[in-house]
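Build the 3D complex.
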Amino acid sequence: MPKIVIAEDDKFLVDLYQKKFSDSGFEVFVASNEKEVFDIIEQEKADVLLVSLIMGGLEIVKKIRQEGSNMKIIITGYYDVTEDGKKAIEAGADKFIDKSHFIPAELVEEIKKLMEK
Amino acid sequence: MSQEEMMQLDKAKSEFISIASHQLRTPLTAVKGYVSMLLEGSYGKIDPKQHEVLKGVYDSNERMVSLVEELLDIPRIELGKMDFTFAPEKLEVICQEIVDTFVPKAKDKGLYLEYKKPKTVLPELIIDGVKVRKVISDIVDNALRYTTKGGVTVKLEQVEKNIRVTISDTGIGVSEEENPKLFQKISRAKGTSLFNPDGLGLNLYVDRLIMGKNGGKIFVESEGKDRGAQFIIELPVKTPEEILEQVGDKK
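Done.
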C-alpha cells in the first residue's frame, strides 16, 4: 500500500484528501508543519508528499532533494502563484497543481500517474 | 506621491492580491471537492434529485471560481505580476484546437462554427501561447453566447506584417457608442446582461492587456446593433529580439 503524507493548510482540504486517498488505497499521514513532514517521511518511509506552498512547500522540497530523496512530491497552490510553482519544480518537485482546478479524484489520478513513472 | 511611496503601495497591492487569492479560493476549492465526492458516491448513494441539486451547487461554485479569477487577473496584470512565458507558437494549431473545443457548444445552440484556414503556411510567432489561447477562446465563447441564429466564423490569415485572427458572428453587434468602451474595465454592450448574468464584464479588458503584453492588439468592428460583429486579434510577425525589447521580458 503506497504511503502519502498530506501537508495542507486548510482543514477541510485535509479532510477531503485524507478520505479520498484512503478510499483509493493509500495509507495516509497528515502533517501540520514542516517538522512533522520530515518526521513522518523518515519514520514511515513515505512514497509521496502532497504539500501546499503556504505550508512552506518550496523550502521542504529543497531540503528533501538536498538529502538525496527521490520520493514523489506534488506542490499545490493557486495558479497566480505559478512563479513559486515553477521555482518548486526547479527545486525538485515533480508537479505543481492548481488545486482550484482539481477535484480529489483527479488529484489521486495525477499522483498514480507520477508513481508509475 | 514619492517613488518610494509608490513602491510601497505596489507591494501592498501585491500582498493583498496574494492573500485575497488564497482566502477566496480555499473555501471554493473545499466546496468543489466535497460536492464532487458526494456526486461520486463517496459518502453514500444519492438519488437523482440529490444529484441534480448537487450538480447545481457544483456548477455555481465553478462560476464563482471563474469570477474570482477574473477579478484577481486585473490587479495582477496591471501590477505586472502576471506570468508570461514566450515561446514559438503556431496560431493555426491554436485556432484549430479552439474551434474543435467549441463546436459542441455551437451545435447545442443550433449555430454554425467554421474555421477558415490560412491559404499559406504562416510564420511562427513568439507569444505566450496559453494566454493568447485564452483570449481567442474568450472571443469565440462570447461570439457564441451573444448569437442566437446564424453562427460564428474564425478566420486566420497574414495581413502584411501581421497575423490576424478574425472572429465574425451574426449576433447582437456593437453600436458606435459602445465600441470604444468595450475593452475598458467593467464594460458590457447593452442588451448583453440577459445573456451573460455570470460575468463581471472584465474579460475583454484583461484580453486587451494580454494582447498588449504579447505585442499585439484586439479591436472590434461592427455595423451596429443586431448586425453582428468582427473581433480582430492581431499579432505582429517580429523577430524574437523585437518581441523581447517590446515587452521587456527576458524569458
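Confidence is low (pLDDT under 50) at residues 193-198 of chain B.
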